[in-house]
Amino acid sequence: MEGLLLARTLEPLRDRLPAERAPWRFAGPHTAVLPLEGDGAVWFFDRLPFPRVEVRSDQPSGSGAPRTAFQAQLAARAAGPLVEVVQPALDRVVRFRFGRSSGFVSTGPVELIAELAGRNGNLILVDEEGTILGAAREIGPETNRYRQIRPGLAYRPPPPYDKADPRTLDDAALARMLEGSRPGRVKKILDGIGPDLTRAAVRLSRLPEDAELTGERLDAFVTGLRRVIRDPVGAAREALDLPDVADLRRRERRDEDLRTVRADLERRLARVRKRIRDGERALSAAEEADALRREADLLLAHAHAIPRGADRATLADFEEGETTVDLDPTRTAAENAKARYDAARRREDRAERAIEREPELERERAELERSLATLDELDDATVRARAEALRTRPERARRTVPGASYPGPHGFEVLVGRSARENDALTFRVARSRDLWLHVQGWHGAHVVIRSGGREVPFDTVLFAARLAAGHSKAVGGDNVPVDVTERKNVWKVKGGPPGAVHYAHQKTVYVTPSRDPTAEGRTPA
C-alpha cells in the first residue's frame, strides 16, 4: 500500500481522534477489525502480498473471536481508546496508539504498528518502552540478521530515507527534480509514490514507461503526476488495472473458505487412512492366530505337568520337538490356554471386519484424495456453500464442563466448582490463562472462573462472580466477605496437596455480600 494512498485512507480517521471503541473483532486469521464508537471501523489486513488498512462503515459477521495467538494478544493488550494515528512522512508504516484501558484488569498504553510494505508487511504490537509484545509474523535471525521481530526485543523501524514530499512541491519544483530522468526514477525521488502510482502518472500523461522526461514530455508527466498527488485513489482506479478492494476481499473470502473445506477434507482423509492402517495391522496380527491356538493346545495337553505360578514352560510339541511357552504366573495352565484361544479369536474377528470394510474405505480414500486434488478448480459459489455448511454443522455434544454455569453481566459465563475435584478440574483443565479466578479469602469454598475469552471483564461482572464465590463458601452466613480475584495464570497447585488446594498471587480483593443467585438482587418481590 503506497504512502500517498495510505495517507488518503487515514484522513477521515484522524478527525475522530481520540476515539472510544468496541472490542476487537476478527473476520479471519489475517483480518482484524477495530469497531469505533458510533459507526465505522478500522480494518487491518496482513495477508501478503497485499497488506493494507481500510476505514470502512461495515463490520464482520459471525462471532468475531480471535483466530490466532497474536489476535488473542491484540484483543487483550490493545484494549484502550484509540488516541493517535501516526504515519511518518508518507511512509508505508502507521502507528496506531492505544491509551490505558479502565476496568478491573487494566492494560497499559500500547502501539499497533502496521507495516504495509508488500511482501514484507506485518502487524507488530509494542509497549510504552518500544518492546515487542507480539507480531503477526515473527522474524528471526535466519530470515533477517539485522532486523528481527520477536517478543522481548526492542522494535527497530525500517531504515530511514530522505525523499521530498510531493504534496509540498509546485509544478515547477517537480519539473526541476525530474528533468532528464525517466519515470522509473520517481519512486526514488518522491515520497509516497511507488511503482503503481508511477504507472498511473505515466498512463495519465500518455507517455511510454521509459520516456525521457524533457520538454513537452516533462510537462505532460508533471500534469499526470499532479493528478496522482491530488487524488491518488481516483487516479489509480482510472489509470490502472489493479485488483480493487472488492476483488481483494473476494480473494480473501475464497482463501478462508478454501482453508475451511480443505481442513475438513484433510481431517476426513487422515481418519480414513488410519482406519486402513488399522485394518492392515489387524490382518497382520491374524497371521499369529494359528500359533496362539497351537500353544493353547500344548498347554492343555501338558496341563498336569505345569505347576501353578510358573512363568515359562518348555513342552514337547506334537511334531516330536520342543516349544517354550511364556505364562501368566497368576493363572493356571488351562486359564493360560483359554487366554490364547480368546486372543486368537479376537484377532480373527478383527481381521474379518477389516476385510469387510476394506473396499468401502479404499473408495472413500480415493474420493477424498480426488476432492482435495480438484478443490482449487471449484467456483467461488460452490466453495462458499461447502464452507458455510461446515461452519453451521451441528457440533458433537461437548464433554460436560465441570461446575455450575451462570450467565453473568455483559454475556460473560461464570463457572462455580461444587466439590474439591470440580474445583481442580475447573481451575486447571477448563480455565485459560487470561480468565479471571476467584476464591473467598481465608475460608474453604468454591473456585469460581469468569471465562473472559481474552476480553476485558467489567467490574460489575467481577462483583457478580465474587458474590457467587462467597455464597458457595463457608463464609456464606457473613457480610462484607473478602474475595480474592486474579488471572488464572497466577494460580498453581499445592505440591502434594489434595484436589482443589492451590496457591495464588497478584490478587486484588473485593468485599461482597454472599449470594447463590446474584441475579435475584434488585428484583421486585412478587
Verbal overview:
- The protein is an alpha+beta fold and 526 residues long.
- It has four domains: 3-135, ibrinogen binding protein from staphylococcus aureus fold (Roll), CATH 2.30.310; 166-239; 248-391; 404-520, no CATH class.
- The protein is 38% helix and 17% strand.
- The strands form five sheets. A six-stranded antiparallel beta sheet has the order 12-13-15-14-16-19.
- Helix 8 runs antiparallel to helix 10 (333-373).
- It is flat and about 115 Å long.
- The protein starts with a helix and ends in a 14-residue tail after the last strand.
- 32% of the residues are buried.
- Residues 522-526 have low confidence and may be disordered.
Give the biggest sheet: 6 strands, antiparallel
Assign the structural class, choosing from mainly alpha, mainly beta, alpha/beta, alpha+beta, or little secondary structure: alpha+beta
The number of domains: 4
The gyration radius over C-alpha positions equals 34 Å
Portion in helices: 25-40%
Q: What is the number of E strands?
A: 19
Number of helices: 13
Mass-distribution shape: flat
Give the integer mean of the pLDDT values.
Answer: 87
What is the distance, rounded to the nearest whole angstrom, between the alpha carbons of the first and last residues? 63 Å
Major β-sheet strand ordering: 12-13-15-14-16-19
Proportion of residues in extended strands: 15-25%
> Poorly predicted ranges (pLDDT <50, ≥5 residues)?
522-526
